Amino acid sequence: MDQSLAVWLVLAAAVVAANLPYFSERVLLVGPRRAPKAAWWRLLELALMAVLVFGLGSMLEARLGQRHEQDWQFYAAAACLFITLGFPGFVWRYLRRGRG
């Protein structure tokens, strides 16, 4: 796998993972279904998905070559980007208007 394919794979995984908590009513995406799932569950799922995507990116970076150590600034910027990628799901869940 080349580097550009790995970057696109991580970005696609981040877009999907950032929106999953908003489109699913299941707890942690596999647990029992709750009709009005609490917002803190969605935030917990969002944090878990961010950790999984960061792990995927780290694994692909190590597989392609030498893995570079990152400081807190990288993770802060990546977390902000992850939250921004989840904005369409947030709009769909909380800001769309009902019919009629």
TrEMBL record:
Keyword terms, alphabetized: Membrane, Transmembrane, Transmembrane helix
**Pfam short name (any one):** DUF2818
Q: Where are the transmembrane segments?
A: 41-60, 72-95
Name of this protein: Uncharacterized protein DUF2818
Q: Write down the species.
A: Roseateles saccharophilus
